[in-house]
Amino acid sequence: MDKNKFLKAFKSAYTQMSKDMPTEVQPFIKQALYRFTIIHLIEKQGWIGKQRQSFIEGWLSQFDNNVPFDVLIDMFTSFSDEGGCVINGYTIPFLNINIFRRNEFDDAAYWPDLSISKIDLISFLDMLDVADIKFTDNVSDEDAITLEVLGFVFENMLVDRKEKGAFYTPVQIVNYMCRESLIQSIKANADKVYKVYSVKDGVITLEDGTVSNEIGDDWINAELIQNLIHKFDVGTLTEMQLKLIFTIITNININDPAVGSGAFPIGMLYNMTEVQAAILDKLGYTYNRHDLKISNIEKCLTGVDIDAGAIEVCKLRMGLSILSECKEPIILPNMDFRFLVGNSLIPVHNGKIIDIEWPVNDGNSFFQFDKKDVKEDVEKLIEMKRLFFHLKNGIFAAKVEILKYREWLLDTIGYKVNGDINGNISFDWKLDFPDVFNPHK
After folding, report:
1. Measured distance CA(176)–CA(121) in Å, rounded
2. Of 63, 259, 307, 395, which one's alpha carbon is 20 to 30 angstroms from that of 228?
3. CA 378, CA 376: separation in Å to the nearest integer?
């Protein structure tokens, strides 16, 4: 089965299950198919406590004909129980996959008198077996169905694709864009990194205290860099050159202002990690690939989209990309403040177009914190988000605390209302990505 056949089968299953359903619960059905797909992948990894039959088959066996929506929702959201849970004798690990958290789609569909056909669900699960999705984001085999198919399905199932500007970008094009972006970043930052490490007379001091005079102003060889980024081949690049390239890649900031389901950041995550791994292998360092990916997401990757569903799929794909590198289940980081729902063109807050009154000095276009307490408050927000990223329990309460603090900070700084706008989104680049766009963090 190729991607197009998979998409056709996915759409067919959705059409069959949503037939004659109220409009407000149809998004839940689409989400349910995603959730079943993820459970299928987790079970293929061997991460659900084994019984004589698969978890989903065993769970469905308690129903004669139809599966009530409320029971289905309770099962799905059990996967978000911190510490894990046991369902019908099956041990479910807590992986912190965002799509299993209860959300507005669940609330809209929590009707005991609505149900999904058991036969339709079994047919969908049989299709997943035939599709044989590979738990990897390595797309070197163009015919294989990999995790990339989730974005492909999402962007092709949007009803208002043209209005939202949501179109699928082939992975080959995404990879080319990502690799060329990395090459340009290396070229643009090479001089800066060189100056950071230089001592005098061309001698370079590295983080581990070693020095080298191997690097001059013309140290970037275009062909060698091309081979490293496009083919992950370190070639004849020296140890010092590789360390400097690693430093540049590990410290770049990448933001996609119309991230959609995450094609570009997923592509960057894959290519950054491959290059870093090639360098570390050459230098003889020990590392875990999933740790590289977690670090890259925390330090380098952010995104915004006005579609909340797209952001959830983006975070889902990021999390699965991390899990694809794991032999054992881990608790994923919290990416809620790395990929945000927002209007990337104008600052908005709860139906209003706003202009945050950041402290400025003499009309300078770049805001300056001449009030120490505001600067410290922004730094506290950055630290709260940093700690939240790695939090493994008390996640919901911590997120609420951050959102309340953000609201307090916005009110403290103050803002002007410049007009009305549909929706209740609240987003501002400097407030919501202060570690990236705030020059006075």
Report:
1. 38
2. 259
3. 5
